Amino acid sequence: MYKLFIRPLFFCFDPEKIHYFTFSLIRFFNKIPGFSKLFQALYEVKDKRLEREVFGIKFKNPVGLAAGFDKDAKLYNELSNLGFGFIEIGTLTPIGQEGNPKKRLFRLKEDNAIINRMGFNNGGVKEAVERLKQNKGVLIGGNIGKNKVTPNEEAVNDYEICFEALFPYVDYFVVNVSSPNTPNLRELQEKEPLKKLLQTLENNKLQTINHKPILLKIAPDLTDEQLLDIIDIVNETKIAGVIATNTTLSREGLQSENKSEVGGLSGKPLTKRSTEVIRFLSEKSNKSFPIIGVGGIHTAEDAIEKLEAGASLVQLYTGFIYEGPALIKAINKKILENS
C-alpha cells in the first residue's frame, strides 16, 4: 500500500515539507484510540530470537531508526510503534540552529537515494530533553554534534554540553564528526583531535556514576589507513563501538538529474561501500567492538548482508523513506528465517 499509493503521492511534493507533513500525519493517527495498537499489529515482529544484547543494552530487535529522521525527539514514541527496536535522535547541538539555506534536501528517484545538506538543523539539546521526559519505554540513542559557529578547537565543549544534558534520558551516545554538511567537521575525524574528544567524554564525571556506551559515527569515504586509525582509537579510548556509515560525498554511478547537488548522499548507492567498511572494521579488529550498520538498506537481504559482514545491529533512514515501514517487518522476519 505504501509503495503503491502513499509514496507516489508524497514524492510529488518538496521532500523537506512532506517530511514535516508526515510527522503531523503519524502524530494525528497515533492520537486516535486504537491506532497505536493497529500500527504495532501491522509492523511489529515479537520474538525472543530477535533480542540482542549489545554494549550492555538489551534490544528487543536489531532494527533501529538512524539519526536525522527524528532530530528533535518529537516523534520517537509514535515511530517505535512501527516495529523499530530502537530510535536514534539528533544530531543535536547545544544551541538551536536553522541549518543550511533551503532547498537542502533532494530525492534521486532513479537511484533510490537522497542528497541532503541540512547542516544540523535542530532546536537545541534543551528542547529535546523536555520531550525525552515523555519517553514511554523507547530505547533511545542520542546523536550529538557541534554548532556551526563553534570553531573546531572548541568543539569538545559543545559535545560535552550535549552529553551532560542528554545523559539521564538516553541509553547510548553517538559522536557525529562525519557529517559533510557542517564546515570543517570531518577534520575532527583525524586521529589526535578525535582521541581527545572521545577521551574527554569517556572521562566525564557522569560516566563514573552510571557508564553509558559511546559510539563513533564514521564516514564511508575514509581510506583503509584511516579506518585502521579508527580501530586504534576505539581500542585506546575504550568507547563502546562504531556506527558505519554516515552519508558519502561520492557521486559514482548516479543516474538522477540532480546528482550534482552539494551534500551527503544516502540510499542504495551507499549499500556496497557501507558493507565494505563494516567488514573491514570487523575483520581488522578481530570483532573487538560492536558495529551498527547503516547505509543503503532497502531490502531484508541488504540488512542480512550487513549483519553477516560483522554488524550487531542495523539502522534505516533512506530505505525507510523509499520502502515504508513494511521494510522493518521484512528484515525482522528474514532474521528469524535465518536463525
List the helices and strands and how they pair.
Layout: H1 2-10, H2 15-31, H3 35-43, E1 52-54, E2 57-59, E3 63-65, H4 76-80, E4 86-92, E5 105-108, E6 113-116, H5 125-132, E7 140-144, H6 155-166, E8 172-176, H7 191-202, H8 205-209, E9 214-218, H9 224-237, E10 241-244, E11 264-267, H10 271-284, E12 291-294, H11 300-309, E13 313-316, H12 318-323, H13 326-338
Parallel strand pairs: 3-4, 3-13, 4-7, 7-8, 8-9, 9-10, 10-12, 12-13
Antiparallel strand pairs: 1-2, 5-6, 6-11
What does this entry look like structurally?
This protein has 339 residues and is an alpha/beta fold. It has one domain (2-338): Aldolase class I (TIM Barrel, Alpha-Beta Barrel), CATH 3.20.20.70. 40% of the residues lie in helices and 16% in strands. It has 13 helices and 13 strands. The protein has helices spanning 2-10, 15-31, 35-43, 76-80, 125-132, 155-166, 191-202, 205-209, 224-237, 271-284, 300-309, 318-323, 326-338, and strands at residues 52-54, 57-59, 63-65, 86-92, 105-108, 113-116, 140-144, 172-176, 214-218, 241-244, 264-267, 291-294, 313-316. The strands form three sheets. It has an eight-stranded parallel barrel with strand order 3-4-7-8-9-10-12-13, surrounded by five helices. The chain has a three-stranded antiparallel sheet with strand order 5-6-11. A two-stranded antiparallel ribbon has the order 1-2. It catalyses: (S)-dihydroorotate + a quinone = orotate + a quinol. Keywords: Cell membrane, Flavoprotein, FMN, Membrane, Oxidoreductase, Pyrimidine biosynthesis.
